[in-house]
Design goal:
Elements (H helix, E strand, L loop, with lengths): L1 H18 L6 H13 L5 H15 L8 H17 L2 H17 L11 H6 L1
Helix pairs in contact: 3-4, 4-5
Length: 120
Amino acid sequence: MRGAIVTWLGSLMFLAASVKGQCPAKEILRKRMAYLRETSTISTEEKIAEVGSYLAKINGCPYRNDSTHASLVTMMGGLYTQKGDYLKAVNYRKQAIHIITASADKPSVNVKTLPGIYYW
């Protein structure tokens, strides 16, 4: 019960922070992504829905096509791997590779994540 309340409060806080504008704050988004990676109280389907909503919002954000965007796309690939949908997983990982390689000259992109994405 306590875990459900913590999850609900975390979701509520994130929602409140992201409602202010179309783009969620990068730091809050990173913290939420870390939480989603670590928790087992949220189903894979719920995680896919949540990360998908962030991906839909990020297209209008100034930090589109940076490491945060690539991390979201990579995370989505990992979630589809957990579901056993390997074709979708590969497509998301390809998108992450494209985001990073197309913007490799920007300081907002961490190219050091590429080997790990290629590995998975």
